[in-house]
Design goal:
single chain; globular; two-stranded parallel sheet
């Protein structure tokens, strides 16, 4: 996650775009790497500042899902926000599936967004 990404996300939120980010490989932050802590804190600050940004620890999840409106969703092994890439590393094979059937996308979004509603609370748009 970069400053450029955060700036683009702020601008999208200012336009009224609703963003949900669910995260967490465990129930707490123990064992979190420093750069993951820094990224989480940046996102927490943004969630507290912006009404349309919902950030939630989902617990033990390893899912990588991206949904855009009713246009499509992608389920993949690619770490959307934590992989910065390195041309000096060896090839890293990632797989994913794109679904672009509007009714299926809408149904899947409704299913996923329910995870953000369960146990809502905490400061701002975080829980």
């Amino acid at each position: 996650m970069t400053r450029e990404f955060l700036g683009r996300m702020r601008r999208a939120l200012d336009r009224g775009v609703r963003v949900y980010i669910g995260y967490g490989f465990s129930e707490d932050d123990s064992g979190e790497r420093r750069w993951d802590q820094d990224a989480r804190k940046e996102l927490e600050t943004l969630a507290d500042e912006r009404e349309h940004f919902i950030l939630k620890r989902l617990g033990d999840t390893h899912a990588k899902v991206l949904i855009q409106d009713r246009d499509f969703f992608v389920i993949t092994s690619f770490n959307w926000l934590s992989f910065k890439g390195d041309p000096d590393q060896t090839f890293r094979e990632e797989w994913g599936t794109l679904v672009a059937i509007p009714t299926v996308v809408e149904d899947y979004f409704e299913e996923m967004v329910q995870r953000f509603a369960v146990g809502e609370g905490g400061a701002g748009n975080r829980s």
